[in-house]
Design brief:
It is a single chain. The chain has 402 residues and is of the alpha+beta class. 30% of the residues lie in helices and 22% in strands. The chain has a single domain (28-352, 381-393), classed as Thiolase/Chalcone synthase (Peroxisomal Thiolase, Chain A, domain 1), CATH 3.40.47. It has helices at residues 48-51, 59-66, 78-93, 117-125, 141-154, 178-181, 242-263, 281-291, 302-305, 312-322, 371-381, 389-393, and strands spanning 5-8, 19-20, 23-24, 31-40, 44-47, 70-73, 102-106, 131-135, 160-167, 187-196, 201-209, 217-220, 237-240, 273-274, 331-338, 342-349. The strands form 5 sheets. A 5-stranded mixed sheet has the order 1-11-16-15-14, sandwiched between helices. Helix 3 (78-93) packs across helix 4 (117-125) and helix 7 packs parallel to helix 8. It is globular and about 65 Å long. The relative contact order is 0.19. It binds acetyl coenzyme *A (ACO). Residues 57, 61-62, 65-66, 138-139, 178-179, 182-183, 217, 242-243, 245-246, 249, 279-280, 307, 309, 338-339 line the site of acetyl coenzyme *A (ACO).
Length: 402
């Protein structure tokens, strides 16, 4: 775990320009409360049996190895899912979009590299004052984004932020590869952060990256390195060493969770709810066991949504709030990992309010196709083993790890 970064509450220090003579004025410590939350799940459900219509797999294999029964396939773009999530989170917080100061779009499935996706969300929300940035650390993008936005609020750069975790993996999944195609799904959720003097919100983060293992998970075919190689957009080949990722995930999540708890003098008994990344039920069980936390303190969505990469933690958080599992003043542990292999564990002290101030009336357009029909459409433009194959199998120039 070399190279890990720590974001730990320090003591409030007055900026130098406010220190004068014998009098010094200390600015009160600022925190970033989570005041709004909202998810937007696409309605079309892809079951394990749907997958076995075109892959050599079974419901039994997928359930016992991963804990997944179904996942969602989106009929709209990731930006549309994000915009509705953000509207819902802002209504929940009672914050006018015009007053938003920062939008963080956490994702590894952006619509385009330029312009970024956060700017599209900004335009759709009418959040004209907001800075807008995309952040990609794969499945930990939301957790890295939450840490970044919290730090920006605590240092006075902005007073509030919308942090989104969104993924549209169905569009670039290699649907011919059963070892990855059964694991992932689409979804989105957002939270609103607002400056406060109360010591709530993200109170500690441990972030890191096990970069020597970065080659265990690579999606070949997305990124400029594949330009000029006759690669069809949306056609990918996944380097995916499931067993190695499994071990690294348990290690990265467990170690970062233990460290963030130790740094804040917190024990497993103090944690009220764990909201983990949901890549595999067995990974979650191993992390909970290592942390000494019973599974009834763990929020699970993996059975219904599979692995939605950066959307898993915020969607699970929103559902935990909807189900009344987040209590006023409760302490939450948010551990995650993703491609890179990045890892993160955050401690969140919840505020007093666990119910929305308002409800948005924004909804998705109706979906007229089944999930399987949409996947079959994507499969039709993919070209496994065909034109794209040579371009996908040669290494991208300049990669440092072969
Ligand atoms: N259906 C049926 N058989 C399958 C399937 C499938 N969908 N996928 C693989 N198999 C086969 C394999 O080919 C292998 O067959 P073989 O023994 O004849 O070679 C056999 O099943 C067993 O495969 P294992 O790799 O031993 O299965 P394992 O129990 O390790 O489970 C899994 C595989 C689910 C991928 C697991 O390793 C895992 O969850 N890894 C971590 C995945 C993960 O975290 N992904 C997210 C990455 S980061 C992010 O979130 C973006």
């Amino acid at each position: 775990m070399a190279g890990a970064l720590r974001f730990v509450n320090g003591r409030a220090r007055a900026p130098p320009w406010r220190l004068g003579g014998s009098r010094c004025t200390f600015r009160p410590m600022t925190y970033a409360a989570i005041t709004g939350w909202g998810a937007c799940m696409p309605p079309a459900v892809l079951t394990n049996d749907d997958l076995s219509t075109f892959l050599e797999t079974t419901d039994e294999w997928i359930r016992t190895r991963t804990g997944m029964r179904e996942r969602r396939v989106s009929h709209v773009s990731g930006m549309e899912l994000s915009i509705i999530s953000a509207h819902r989170a802002l209504a929940c917080a009672g914050l006018d979009p015009a007053d938003v100061e920062l939008i963080v779009y956490g994702s590894c499935s952006n619509e385009e590299a330029v312009p970024n996706s956060a700017s599209g969300v900004q335009a759709a929300l009418g959040a004209t004052r907001a800075a807008a940035m995309d952040l990609n650390t794969a499945c930990t993008s939301f957790l890295y984004g939450l840490t970044t936005a919290t730090a920006m609020i605590k240092t006075g750069v902005v007073k509030n932020a919308v942090v989104i975790g969104v993924e549209l993996i169905s569009k670039y999944m290699d649907w011919s590869d059963r070892s990855v195609a059964v694991l992932f799904g689409d979804g989105a959720a957002a939270v609103v952060l607002q400056a406060t003097d109360a010591p709530i919100g993200v109170i500690g983060s441990v972030l890191g990256c096990d970069a020597l293992s970065r080659r265990t998970l690579r999606v070949r075919g997305i990124g400029v390195g594949y330009a000029g190689r006759n690669v069809t957009i949306g056609d990918t080949k996944w380097d995916f060493d499931g067993q190695a990722i499994f071990k690294r995930a348990v290690h990265g999540m467990s170690e970062s969770a233990a460290r963030v708890m130790a740094e804040h003098g917190v024990t497993a008994a103090d944690v009220d709810l764990v909201v983990p990344h949901q890549a595999n039920l067995r990974i979650i069980e191993a992390v909970a066991k290592y942390a000494g936390l019973p599974m009834d303190k763990v929020m699970l969505t993996v059975e219904r949504y599979g692995n939605m990469s950066s959307a898993t933690v915020p969607v699970a958080l929103v559902e935990a709030l909807d189900e009344g599992r987040v209590k006023p003043g409760g302490l939450l542990l948010l551990p995650g990992f993703g491609g890179g292999l990045t890892y993160a564990s955050l401690l969140v002290r919840w505020g007093d309010r666990v119910t929305p101030l308002g409800v948005s009336d924004k909804v998705l357009p109706p979906c007229t196709r089944t999930a399987l029909e949409m996947v079959n459409e994507i499969r039709a433009y993919q070209d496994p083993g065909g034109r794209s194959a040579p371009g996908l199998s040669t290494l991208v120039a300049g990669t440092c790890d072969g």
